[in-house]
Amino acid sequence: MSKTRLALEDVPAAARAEMLRGTSPRGDEKTADDLAWQEALMLWLSWNRAYERLTAKMCRAGQDQEKLEQLMDEMDQLRVQAIDRSEALLRAG
């Protein structure tokens, strides 16, 4: 049985906007720190989705190597962004 994973692109734009301006799990207004953590997590979810697509394509025969390299570059950019945000949050915490 496969697990259902939530990726940033799976969340409708209106719902993402609501998540970013809504309340925290504590019930109060979200702080800048809450939003920063949420953004970092969304970046990791986006990276994970790209990673899953890439590995699925790599397993299929006859894939266009140029397209695979482009997807790998995009995935690496997401990973670097997520790492930068996560490290900054961990240093600030």
What descriptors fit this protein?
single chain; 93 residues; mainly alpha; 3 helices; 0% strand; disordered N terminus
Could you please describe the fold and organization of this structure?
This protein is mainly alpha-helical and 93 residues long. It has a domain of 62 residues. The protein contains 3 helices and no strands. The N and C termini lie far apart (37 Å). 9% of the residues are buried. The N terminus is likely disordered.
**How many DSSP H or I helices?**
3
State the major sheet: none
Stretches where pLDDT falls below 50 for ≥5 residues?
1-7
What's the overall geometry? elongated
List the helices and strands and how they pair.
Layout: H1 13-21, H2 32-59, H3 65-92
Helix pairs in contact: 2-3
